[in-house]
Amino acid sequence: MKFKNTISYAFMCIILICFIGCAEMKGILEMAGVQKPQARISGIKISQVSFKDIGLIFNIEINNPNSMGIHLDGFDYDFILNGSSFVKGDQNQGVDIESKGKSVVPFPITLTFKDIYNLSQSMKNMDEIGYKLNTGLKFDLPVLGMTRIPLETSGKIPAVKVPSIKLESLSLKKMGLTSVDLEAVMNIDNPNIFGLNLDGLNYALSISGVEWISGKKSSAIALNKKADSKVAIPISLNILNMGKSVVNMIQNGNNLDYKLSANSVVGSTLEMFGKQNIDLTKSGKIDILK
């Protein structure tokens, strides 16, 4: 029994000596100047915007104050939108930072508006969406071991939405024995907090399943932010070609089914918004004004 107690006491002494030795060694090396690197998010920019998605780049600046090089093993991140976690994960691509040196690590992220609005339908009604990025840089430092340096930043991104179109009015202008002249007025609405520019407009209008007109407006259409624009289209129908049913439809002219289709190449006043094709369709009911 006495022998066992002696062994236990000796073992505890060895552990205590090792612990004290490691602690002293750590203190010596810390006194020698081993420091945690400094880090900050030095810049944020939008890399691209479309009706489908938006790309952001966060520039993470790392400053190494030590007289030896260090290695960034990677970082974890949690991207939060309107208070809810949207995407999180780990970036494991390492980066070497030389002694007394500085390095900027870009962190790109692409957000799809469909996924954003699926996260919360209320964000679809917002002009801008608040975000917050929480991230932690991971270093394996001499003496200090694995070290995580937390960073966070916040800001806003535009809630990009496709413009909408509708048939605002359909008016009878003239009715003869062989032809009918009407005017259709389309309303194009821009729900965004930035302007849009349409490079012309291709359109087609059907009433009660019959195509009344298709054509192209060649001139550009400017849509100011949070505003709409009206486009008038003259329509001339040949009664002999289209038949008596169209005449009856026009004479009755109430609660008619319509389908309006349009497409255009769209640009924007928003920086990094590239030109893109959009298709717009709207179905509804319309009365013919006489």
Can you walk me through this structure?
- The protein is of the alpha+beta class.
- Helices cover 17% and strands 58% of the residues.
- The chain folds into 2 domains: 124 residues, Immunoglobulins (Immunoglobulin-like, Sandwich), CATH 2.60.40; 126 residues, Immunoglobulin-like (Sandwich).
- The strands form 4 sheets. Strands 11, 12, 13, 14, 16 and 17 form a 6-stranded antiparallel β-sheet that branches. Strands 3, 4, 5, 7 and 8 form a 5-stranded antiparallel β-sheet that branches. A 4-stranded mixed β-sheet has the order 15-10-9-18.
- The chain is rod-shaped.
Offer a quick outline of the entry.
With 290 residues, this protein is an alpha+beta fold.
Q: Helix amount, in percent?
A: 10-25%
What's the overall geometry?
Answer: rod-shaped
SSE succession: HEEEEEEHEEEEEEEEEHHEEE
Largest sheet: 6 strands, antiparallel
Content of β-strand: over 45%
Oligomer: single chain
- Reported by name, the CATH topology of the largest domain is Immunoglobulin-like
**Radius of gyration, whole Å:** 33 Å
Uncertain runs: 1-20
Number of strands: 18
The second-level CATH architecture of the largest domain is Sandwich
Q: Work out the helix count.
A: 4
Looking at this protein, list some descriptive labels.
290 residues, alpha+beta, Immunoglobulin-like, 5-stranded antiparallel sheet, 4 helices, 58% strand, rod-shaped, disordered N terminus
